[in-house]
């Protein structure tokens, strides 16, 4: 499914007729299935609302394909086929719907959308009770809004998504969402590739994955990869790929990056051991695109001796925060007495370092803009 979506994302950012060509190449049935799964994955549940079925049909040339969405207070499921008793019907041209889902924001949404309320259309009563009809209508209207809101390119924000998907990145122990929003908002409309180390749920194969789902919903054109030392199973999740491996295994991490990178975002929420954090950064930073972000979460572990940290020597390069502090000096590698001391291929590509409580962002950029000429005195005061 993800290879189909990848081709749709590329086509959505190109000429309008490119999408129809990709649908022809991939097959309308495969594209319609991928699009239906995407919409279901983006939907928010409706607490306190009875189950509602919405019929969603797409057309492409002579093809007409249908899916039924079941919206419940626990979530949204989708099945192939039609429900003749669904109280609401939505129709789209398939290529237009794919552009709306995966294209850049802007333009006019819903150009080929058709919506038809079927609730009470075939009522046998001569005069249905209007109040009773309106009571039945309310959950149908709300369910329809849930589906159409899944097409919105900019909302909801990360704070809401963190709660929705049950990740600990905002609320309780951590308050990372505002930090992420500050740096990632500029990337939200891009077809990013994101890698997160640490899926969550510890040894349980069916637990975890909340943050991966959050990133998928936030980056609606992106592909999300998660790696964990434990086996994790997220079957049927569009735009999410899970991999099993140890972040301390440099060969494994390097092979992963070669196969699935380069990445626009890399997030280390793995073991939090300083040696692992430092080693993984050295392995993966070359596979981060210029303009991308390398994020280290839970930097407080840098001060805990049991995790390879040190609360005595705060500048120790053997701790994760100490190593990140060295990047600040590396930003000025051309101004150091030994200009080549920090120009090691890493510091030449660090454009900014941002620290917050418990989290740090390293921004990749070319850091070779030159410095003041050597005849300007470095010691004492310049004289005329």
TrEMBL record:
> Which SUPFAM superfamilies does this one have?
S-adenosyl-L-methionine-dependent methyltransferases
| Pathway info | Antibiotic biosynthesis
Q: A Pfam family matched by this chain, by name?
A: MycE_N
InterPro entries, sorted: MycE_N, SAM-dependent_MTases_sf
Q: Give the record's keywords alphabetically.
A: Antibiotic biosynthesis, Methyltransferase, S-adenosyl-L-methionine, Transferase
Report domain Methyltransferase MycE N-terminal positions.
Answer: 5-112
* Protein name (database record): Methyltransferase MycE N-terminal domain-containing protein
Name its species: Actinomadura chokoriensis
Q: Taxonomy-wise, where does this protein's organism fall, top ranks first?
A: Bacteria, Bacillati, Actinomycetota, Actinomycetes, Streptosporangiales
């Amino acid at each position: 499914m993800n290879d189909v979506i990848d081709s749709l994302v590329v086509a959505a950012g190109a000429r309008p007729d490119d999408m129809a060509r990709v649908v022809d190449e991939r097959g309308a049935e495969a594209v319609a299935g991928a699009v239906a799964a995407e919409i279901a994955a983006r939907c928010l549940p409706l607490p306190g609302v009875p189950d509602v079925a919405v019929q969603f049909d797409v057309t492409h040339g002579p093809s007409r394909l249908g899916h039924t969405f079941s919206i419940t207070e626990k979530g949204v499921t989708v099945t192939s086929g039609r429900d003749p008793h669904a109280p609401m019907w939505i129709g789209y041209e398939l290529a237009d719907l794919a552009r709306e889902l995966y294209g850049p924001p802007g333009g006019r949404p819903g150009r080929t959308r058709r919506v038809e309320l079927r609730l009470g259309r075939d009522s046998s009563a001569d005069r249905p009770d209007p109040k009773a009809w309106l009571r039945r209508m309310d959950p149908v209207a709300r369910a329809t809004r849930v589906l159409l809101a899944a097409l919105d390119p900019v909302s909801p924000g990360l704070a809401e998504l963190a709660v929705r998907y049950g990740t600990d990145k905002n609320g309780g122990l951590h308050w990372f969402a505002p930090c992420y929003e500050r740096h990632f908002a500029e990337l939200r409309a891009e077809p990013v590739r994101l890698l997160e180390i640490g899926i969550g749920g510890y040894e349980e194969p069916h637990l975890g994955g909340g943050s991966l789902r959050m990133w998928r919903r936030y980056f609606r054109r992106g592909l999300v990869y998660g790696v964990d030392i434990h086996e994790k199973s997220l079957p049927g999740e569009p735009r999410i790929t899970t991999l099993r491996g140890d972040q301390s295994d440099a060969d494994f991490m390097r092979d992963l990056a070669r196969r699935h990178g380069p990445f626009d975002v890399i997030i280390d929420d793995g073991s939090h051991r300083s040696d692992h954090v430092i080693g993984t950064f050295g392995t993966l930073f070359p596979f981060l695109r210029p303009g991308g972000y390398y994020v280290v979460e839970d930097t407080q572990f840098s001060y805990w001796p049991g995790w390879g940290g040190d609360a005595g020597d705060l500048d120790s390069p053997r701790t994760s925060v100490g190593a990140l502090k060295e990047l600040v000096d590396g930003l000025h590698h051309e101004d150091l007495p030994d200009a080549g001391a920090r120009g090691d291929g890493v510091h030449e590509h660090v454009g900014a370092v941002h620290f917050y409580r418990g989290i740090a962002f390293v921004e990749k950029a070319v850091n070779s803009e030159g410095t003041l000429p050597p005849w300007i005195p470095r010691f004492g005061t310049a004289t005329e």
